Amino acid sequence: MKVFKNRLVVSLTISLWSICVSSYSNEPNGEIIKPNILFVLTDDQAHWTLRTSGNDQAYSPNLDKLASEGAFFENAFVTTPVCSPSRATLMTGQYASELGILDFIPQPGHKLYHPGKATGLDPANITFAEVLRDNGYRTGLIGKWHLGDWTESGMDRKFHPTNHGYGYFMGLTGGGESPVDPNLEKNGEIHQMKGLTVDILTNSALKFIDDHQNTPFLLSVHYRSPHSKWLPVADEDWAPYENMEMRVPHPDYPDLDTDRVKSRMKEYLASASGIDRNVGRLMKKLNELGLYENTIVIFTSDHGYNMGHNGIEHKGNGYWITEGDHPATENLTKNSRPNLYDQSLHVPVLIRWPRVIQPELKIKKTFSNLDWFPTLLEMANIPVPEDKILRGRSIVPVLKGELVDDWDNDLYTEYSMVNYSTAHMRSYRTKKWKLVKDFQDPRRDELYHLETDPDEKNNLVKEKRGEIRDVIKHLTYKILSKMEEINDPLLDSITK
């Protein structure tokens, strides 16, 4: 009888929640309500930078509150751990290798920029911003784009965000800018602005919300923090860390420069706290304007970050943070460590969707940036264009509490590093195993048993045991099958 009563309570709870969800979607006259969407994307922000993720040294009260009011994803990843490829995947729902964006896009003035070879996201690749715009949304992007714009002769609007579905743009089209007194584009012109970049971008976002409070909007706020360099930050963002003795991930890693890790960790987390403070400003504005209950708020990052993990710093194009140098090799520059570590791929994802997502929902299912495109369209009750290629799937059923038993939790990732060093890495990850193959140099292949080694410290790829060889064979097949499915250009070079 007790079991029966518990099941009845659960059933009634789900039914009542479904009624709330249904009433959220429609006016009394049957007209569909379009929710506003505030999409906050940060740069280089690891999953572990939030207290919600278990890091008690992180100061993130506003994001922790956001997580408590909605969903927190425990297993969210990107498919390429570097800026431009990851952002291309986010916007299109396709792998970066399909789009021809393999590594970060250098801008004029960068030593890797080649005049006459401007690259970017081809406007033929439809973005979710375009679909939302074409279905009644006012769209704006404030912050970092890094999917093309500048050429040696000036601005080429072919790759500009206003040619990818955003009706308004203010920010930086390239990859890097100072954390203070930045040069930002506004109304089609570059201006040097005074103040902290993170605050300037928020000021512009607040104005956009003010100006569009009476119409459905998609506002993408792409902060350049906590990308280095991290300082200066506001005094209030530095204060929580000023006297804190920072913990070092993997402190027993051979030759790790622990003093440098501690120093840089403090600056990095302070920069992340600047993001948290400004998310609080955005939430306050929504509340003041009465938009708090009809705005979906999303927070995530373009990829993860290492800070001493496995002896390296940075992301997919990482470098050693050890006392001694690692000499250059045939394919790698000095101290270079290209990688597909989970720390480079694992990102924070928080979603607040009032009356749809139950508070404090913890999602364990694997989610990737391929999934944003279909998820956002389903949130807005907009069908996916018929001719649109999508590699991801909507997670809305999971957000609504529906039982989804056939969710595939495997993850395929890729990174062809062509800037600075050369590596052509492809990886397949299951709950138990993760294989990384570097088709540029098979000596750099890696295999990790994630169930016993979640920190990826013990590379088993050279072991001769039959079980290990079988796993490598199976996951290699998975990698090659995925490469064939998406017509990965690398496949041609390795099969010749």
TrEMBL record:
Gene3D superfamilies: 3.30.1120.10, Alkaline Phosphatase, subunit A
Matching InterPro entries: Alkaline_phosphatase_core_sf, Sulfatase, Sulfatase_CS, Sulfatase_N
Keyword Hydrolase assigned: yes
Location of the Sulfatase N-terminal domain: 35-382
Keywords, sorted A to Z: Calcium, Hydrolase, Metal-binding
Lineage: superkingdom: Bacteria
CDD domains: sulfatase_like (cd16149)
Protein name, as recorded: N-acetylgalactosamine-6-sulfatase
Organism: Echinicola rosea
Family: Belongs to the sulfatase family.
